[in-house]
């Protein structure tokens, strides 16, 4: 199984753990990731707030390079995925748009190379049996509130799972031996840039997510988006202070948990790089009696 | 040579303001066959018609061409006119120089005049080729079939029966009554639904002219107006109806309990049951899918306790064929399945219910004896949120149309909550409030003013559980702000949709249905209870969302139409139908599936071929069913089919007149 890999800007900075854990997880699962040479930023929200064509052309260049190599693109970040998928659909649905985009990027892109969310590949393409077979340490003690955010499975045309009650990540965590909780905020917005630009609103949005996860009995949050993780992890302390609450809710990338269950060393996954301490829970999992005989 | 008269109408200034009518008449003088041509201000008026009649006599005309409006408008008028002057009605031909000419070419008067001349020339050529046609008569069976025993079906049956006609009502459920039997009170007067419905149900069951055929469905419809041969499947009831007195002992002793459909699964019924206490007929049926005896061969308690020996496990479905002169379909509606709405919990939260659940919860004979208790834990809800237009007016997930009744029944529900629950709060999320109808707007205003229901204009984006509350998050678009309400119960005003099998039934009967599967009327304004199939009429919500007053009105209208049809023992049929030239038909059968009215069958004929008698298949058009649409004539590769009055020869004569 080989994919073109588009890490996106965040994964070399704030979201470095996502990159590390993605590569480790892929290695164990035998997914060959070919990083797109000289990839450029997908444009994210600034791109499509600036200009429609620009917002489609930026990801199109990356997709075109992947298409030349005959590969579909694996994309960890929810925003990068949404933008790239939007481009793929725009090109597939309109010959005119395709021509316009090709003129701008000075390459051919016919929409043959598909944008794929990494979560979709790992949770849905790969048989849960194959995931289970690679588990060396079941995630005993993990009670995860799987947090998809507002972007990953929406809108319907772009999403790969139920837009209101997605299950991909939940099923994956369960295959890894962890538990998940049923909660109401799995597709709510994390606030994106609100916590920076309008801190009061942003904090309120985050508070509800923490509270709802906690009330549902979760002991950690799991995400598939560097923006979500950033807000949930980095701002958790501020929210706790503002609301005089204690959540103690480590926030993981789903790839970190997958890597952990696959027996990869926590530091290699970047699990020591979180703001809210994750190692405590990680060590509990490692200590718990969830080991499996390896062949 | 035929003697053709041409009559050019000005239609006031409708035609005359654009087309030079005098010039058209003058030009027409020179067309082959024309012996007389004249123009007049209003051909359809009394003097206009007199002019035509006089000319027929004085000029000895044997063909008439009227150049005026669309034949849809006045063809019957002019046909009657020439007929009264002793001419066959089908010798009159119309040239449409209004809709097809003056109205669309008002900017180009000269060209419009030229085109009118051409249209007249074609009509003259065709008129010369026209053949005299005669209307035939067919017998009419004085018996009507009503499909569906809801309020619409009951009303139609009563009206017909009172007019002296025999009516059979086929109802698929064990009892008649339909949705109205489930409803508690009715807007806008809040009179109790059962109190106004059950007397009608009793009237229907005791009327000497009405036969109720419950727990039955229509299997097949053959024949045509006046003579429909309908096969009805009477499902095995497992009860001998002639013996059972409806004492109900069996029902009280039956050990197998299942969700009651009538109670919207809010309570249980037995495997042997009547859907509700006032059911008509008030005799039970055994639901074989859930009866222990039918599943395992053991039990038979009902049989043991029935002192009259009315239980009959050996009964089988029975098929009966009956001939009817007319059919009224009154199959009503179902509620939209809101489980497509993930934002409202996909139907997973027990306290997110539909309007019909609410009707049962508030009904004194319902599962909670009329106390509003929420399904999950039986608590009395304090905060009740209503969400309107669920599945209606939503092309993304539901239907494009407005369901018309839900604004009113939600207002009704709101008043009932406030009346029954002290200190309750009612919130209603709406897009628009649509309360057209007598006394309706006043009712809605009372709901807001006297009952203090809080109307919030906006959509709900999400309903989710928090503890034992349902959080309803939405937008108040009038105040431009997000709102969140802690609700104890949420009631969805779900769309009215046709019965799931509506399209199948329509295909059986041979009537049309729209994209949403509501049955289609013949004309949205001028023939709202007729269908395109003669002898089949519509009543109630099967034709589109309707409340009770509208359903009843339409039912009576349909009954009046049927009375008209059944009042004579014979009826005239339109002679413009398809005909088969058997000598060139090869019996390929291509035309059979093409006919939308199932009017063509293949039949075997014997003929002499070189001294031998041979048998072969040919198409056979049923004159009673054929509506003259012409679809078959173009499908036939042998050109064996021709539509009378629009024969190939007649059409070619028109083309030749224009082009040669
Ligand atoms: C929650 C709710 C509240 C309402 N409240 C009011 C109100 O207060 N006032 C008001 O005016 N209106 C109200 N209405 C609207 C009202 O229910 C309808 O106007 C009315 O029921 C329509 O009558 P109907 O006979 O056309 O259809 P239905 O009542 O649906 O009856 C149709 C009948 O046909 C039967 N049937 C269906 N298919 C077949 C078949 N293939 N063969 C044989 N039988 C078949 C069905 O079993 C049923 O008995 C309400 C509707 C809802 C959903
Ligand atoms: S035989 Fe069937 S219907 Fe009769 S009592 Fe037993 S379960 Fe009920
Ligand atoms: S009647 Fe009212 S609630 Fe029902 S669909 Fe129409 S607008 Fe919506
Ligand atoms: S003219 Fe139309 S209705 Fe008549 S037989 Fe042909 S297809 Fe059927
Ligand atoms: S009428 Fe024409 S289409 Fe129909 S069976 Fe005869 S040859 Fe075939």
What's a quick, concise take on this entry?
The complex is a heterodimer of chains A (295) and B (660). Chain A has 295 residues and is an alpha/beta fold.
**Number of DSSP-assigned strands of chain A:** 8
Low-confidence parts of chain B lasting 5 or more residues at pLDDT below 50?
A: none
Q: Percent range for helical residues of chain B?
A: 25-40%
The first-level CATH class of the largest domain in chain B is given as Alpha Beta
Shape of chain A: globular
Please list the strands of the largest sheet of chain B in the order they lie side by side: 10-7-6-18-29
Distance between the termini of chain B: 20 Å
What's the total helix number of chain B? 19
Q: Count of helical segments of chain A?
A: 14
Largest sheet of chain B: 5 strands, parallel
**CA radius of gyration of chain A:** 19 Å
How are the strands of the biggest sheet of chain A laid out side by side? 2-1-3-4
Quaternary assembly: heterodimer
Going by CATH, the homologous superfamily of the largest domain in chain B would be FAD/NAD(P)-binding domain
Order of helices and strands of chain A: EHEHHEHHEHHEHEHHEHHEHH
What is the mean pLDDT of chain B?
Answer: 96
Task: Give the number of domains of chain A.
Answer: 2
Structural class of chain B: alpha/beta
Kindly state the percentage of residues in helix of chain A. Answer: 40-55%
Describe the structure using short key phrases.
A: about 300 residues, alpha/beta, Glutathione S-transferase Yfyf (Class Pi), Chain A, domain 2, four-stranded parallel sheet, globular, B: about 650 residues, Rossmann fold, FAD/NAD(P)-binding domain, five-stranded parallel sheet, 19 helices, 34 strands, binds flavin-adenine dinucleotide, binds iron/sulfur cluster
How is this structure best described in words?
The complex is a heterodimer of chains A (295) and B (660). Chain A folds into two domains: 2-119, Glutathione S-transferase Yfyf (Class Pi), Chain A, domain 2 (Up-down Bundle); 136-287, Rossmann fold, CATH 3.40.50. Helices cover 48% and strands 9% of the residues of chain A. Chain A has helices at 16-29, 44-50, 52-68, 78-93, 95-105, 118-125, 128-134, 168-175, 194-197, 199-215, 226-234, 236-243, 254-261, 279-287, and strands at residues 2-5, 32-35, 73-75, 115-117, 143-146, 179-180, 220-223, 251-253. Chain A has a four-stranded parallel β-sheet with strand order 2-1-3-4, with helices on both faces. In chain A, strands 6-5-7-8 form a four-stranded parallel β-sheet, sandwiched between helices. In chain A, α1 links the parallel β1 (2-5) and β2 (32-35). Chain A is globular and about 55 Å long. Chain B has 660 residues and is α/β, with parallel strands linked by helices. Chain B is 28% helix and 26% strand. The mean pLDDT of chain B is 96. At the A-B interface, loops of A face β24 of B.
């Amino acid at each position: 199984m080989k994919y073109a890999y588009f890490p996106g800007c965040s994964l070399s900075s704030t979201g470095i753990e996502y990159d590390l854990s993605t590569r480790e997880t892929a290695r164990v699962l035998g997914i060959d990731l070919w990083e797109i040479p000289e990839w450029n930023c997908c444009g994210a929200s600034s791109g499509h707030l600036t200009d429609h064509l620009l917002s489609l052309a930026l990801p199109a260049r990356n997709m075109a390079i992947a298409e030349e190599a005959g590969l579909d693109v694996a994309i960890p970040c929810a925003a990068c995925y949404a933008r790239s998928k939007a481009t793929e659909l725009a090109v597939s649905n309109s010959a005119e748009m395709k021509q316009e985009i090709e003129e701008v990027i000075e390459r051919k892109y016919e929409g043959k190379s598909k944008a794929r969310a990494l979560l979709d590949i790992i949770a849905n393409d790969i048989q849960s049996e194959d995931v289970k077979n690679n588990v060396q340490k079941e995630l005993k003690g993990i009670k995860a509130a799987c947090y998809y955010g507002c972007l990953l499975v929406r809108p319907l045309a772009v999403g790969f799972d139920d837009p209101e009650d997605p299950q991909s990540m939940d099923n994956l965590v369960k295959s890894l031996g962890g538990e998940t909780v049923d909660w109401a905020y799995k597709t709510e917005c994390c606030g994106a840039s609100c916590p920076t630009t309008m801190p009061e609103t942003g904090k309120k949005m985050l508070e509800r997510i923490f509270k709802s996860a906690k009330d549902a009995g979760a002991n950690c949050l799991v995400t598939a988006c560097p923006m979500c993780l950033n807000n949930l992890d980095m701002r958790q302390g501020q929210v706790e202070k503002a609301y005089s609450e204690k959540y103690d809710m480590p926030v993981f990338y789903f790839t970190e948990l997958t890597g952990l269950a696959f027996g990869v060393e926590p530091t290699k996954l970047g699990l020591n790089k979180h703001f809210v301490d994750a190692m405590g829970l990680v060590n509990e999992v490692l200590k718990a009696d969830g080991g499996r005989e390896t062949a | 040579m035929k003697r053709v008269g041409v009559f050019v109408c000005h239609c006031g200034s409708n035609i005359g303001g654009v087309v030079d009518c005098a010039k058209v008449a003058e030009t027409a003088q020179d067309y082959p066959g024309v012996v007389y041509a004249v123009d007049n201000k209003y051909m359809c008026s009394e003097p206009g018609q007199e002019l035509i009649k006089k000319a027929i006599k004085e000029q000895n005309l044997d063909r008439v061409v009227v150049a005026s409006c669309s034949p849809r408008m006045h063809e019957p008028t002019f046909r009657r006119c020439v007929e009264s002057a002793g001419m066959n009605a089908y010798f009159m031909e119309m040239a449409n120089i209004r809709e097809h000419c003056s109205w669309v070419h008002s900017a180009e008067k000269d060209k419009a005049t030229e085109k009118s001349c051409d249209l007249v020339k074609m009509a003259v050529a065709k008129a010369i080729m026209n053949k005299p046609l005669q209307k035939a008569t067919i017998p009419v069976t004085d018996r009507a079939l009503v499909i569906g025993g809801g309020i619409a079906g009951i009303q139609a049956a009563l009206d017909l029966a009172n007019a002296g006609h025999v009516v059979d009502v086929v109802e698929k459920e064990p009892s008649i009554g339909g949705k109205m039997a489930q409803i508690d009170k009715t807007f806008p007067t809040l009179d109790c639904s059962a109190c106004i419905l059950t007397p009608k149900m009793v009237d229907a069951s005791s009327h000497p002219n009405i036969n109720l055929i419950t727990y039955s469905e229509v299997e097949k419809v053959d024949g045509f107006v006046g003579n429909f041969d309908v096969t009805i499947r009477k499902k095995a009831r497992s009860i001998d109806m002639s013996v059972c007195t409806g004492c109900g002992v069996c029902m009280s002793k039956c050990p197998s309990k299942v969700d009651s459909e009538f109670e919207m699964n809010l309570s249980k019924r037995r495997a042997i049951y009547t859907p509700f206490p006032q059911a008509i007929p008030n005799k039970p049926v055994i639901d074989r899918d859930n009866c222990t005896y039918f599943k395992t061969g053991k039990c038979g308690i009902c049989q043991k306790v029935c002192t009259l020996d009315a239980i009959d496990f050996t009964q089988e479905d029975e098929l009966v064929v009956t001939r009817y002169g007319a059919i009224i379909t009154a199959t009503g509606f179902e509620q939209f399945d809101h489980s497509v709405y993930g934002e409202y919990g996909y139907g997973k939260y027990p306290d997110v219910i539909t309007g019909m659940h609410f009707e049962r919860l508030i009904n004194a004979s319902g599962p909670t004896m009329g106390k509003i208790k929420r399904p999950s834990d039986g608590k009395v809800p304090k905060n009740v949120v209503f969400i309107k237009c669920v599945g209606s007016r939503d092309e993304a997930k539901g239907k494009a149309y407005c369901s018309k009744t839900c604004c009113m029944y939600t207002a009704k529900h709101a008043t009932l909550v406030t009346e029954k629950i002290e200190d309750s709060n009612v919130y209603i999320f709406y897009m628009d409030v649509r309360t057209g109808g007598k006394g309706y707007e006043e009712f809605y205003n009372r709901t807001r003013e006297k009952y203090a229901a809080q109307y919030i204009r906006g959509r709900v984006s999400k309903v989710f559980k928090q503890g034992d509350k349902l959080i309803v998050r939405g937008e108040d678009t009038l105040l431009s702000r997000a709102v969140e309400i802690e609700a104890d119960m949420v009631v969805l005003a779900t769309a009215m949709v046709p019965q799931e099998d509506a399209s199948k039934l329509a295909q059986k009967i041979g009537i049309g249905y729209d994209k949403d599967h509501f049955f289609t009327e013949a004309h949205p304004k001028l023939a709202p209870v007729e269908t395109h199939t003669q002898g089949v009429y519509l009543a109630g919500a099967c034709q589109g969302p309707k409340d009770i007053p509208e359903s009843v009105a339409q039912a009576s209208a349909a009954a009046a139409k049927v009375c008209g049809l059944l009042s004579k023992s014979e009826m005239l049929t339109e002679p413009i139908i398809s005909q088969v030239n058997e000598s060139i038909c090869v019996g390929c059968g291509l035309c059979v599936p093409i006919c939308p009215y199932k009017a063509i069958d293949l039949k075997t004929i014997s003929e002499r071929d070189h001294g031998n008698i041979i048998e072969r298949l040919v198409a056979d058009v049923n004159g009673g069913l054929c509506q003259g649409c012409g679809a078959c004539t173009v499908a036939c590769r042998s050109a064996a089919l021709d539509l009378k009055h629009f024969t190939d020869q007649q059409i070619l004569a028109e083309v030749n007149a224009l082009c040669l």
